[in-house]
Amino acid sequence: MDKLVVKPNLDVVFKAIFARNEDLLRDFLSLVLDNKPEDYENITILNPEILPEQYNEKFPRLDLILKMQNGEKINIEMQNHDEHDYRQRSVYNQSRLFTRDLKRGDEYDDLTKTICINVLQIPLFESENYKSTVYPVIIETNEIVTELWEIIYFETPKLPDKPGTRLEQWLKFFTINTEEEMNMARNSADTMINKAIEVTYSMNDDTQMREIARAREERMFNERSVMKATENFGVQKGIFKVARNLITLGVELDKIIKATGLPESEIRQIQQEL
How far is Cα 60 from Cα 55, in angstroms, rounded to an integer? Predict the structure, then answer.
């Protein structure tokens, strides 16, 4: 299977598809929010550009921020990898966007509906559903505090193998990683998703877009490598701390070896250091 350079599950490509093709954006939004595509005719994309400092900087936000004619705001973001803090990050991003336009002296009634749509290539919640909608609620009664603050999560690993709805087809499209998968989608998709496929193919012929995609993927790979090394270091550091505590408590050598998995030579070295 040939791997695509410019593929729709890459956040820079995800953003470019919608920022450069508003008809595709309107179609996707209408399915997510259960409206008509024409309801989004007067939508404004506040950050359509993909700047070099965005795709090459550490942990950038390559989201798409939209504003409706009535002031409502929509944020769309693709997340490829588990950074262990995505729940908190998504709540923080939503809260910032929700209050961003409220200035000193404004009334709280001036707050407008804000929706953050997260398309995730990772599982995030225990639920088996691929879609999760979040509002602030009262736990005891399940009463929604406000419908102005909303987050929608789509966990693509939980999608059915064969998409049954157009929304599922769109979400499945954003999991494509190879040219073979792209061709399979092309044979079964509808007109709008076929356009998204052709747009992606044309980006693969665009030298600048290919370089952007390569740079972004390389940066993401390096970030994951650093995170993994940091995690491993933290685990190892914790094991040595446990070994030191057990030595201090006078636990027998064979039991420390069993508890920590460290070789005898390293445990004896820790004993000497103590």
Answer: 7
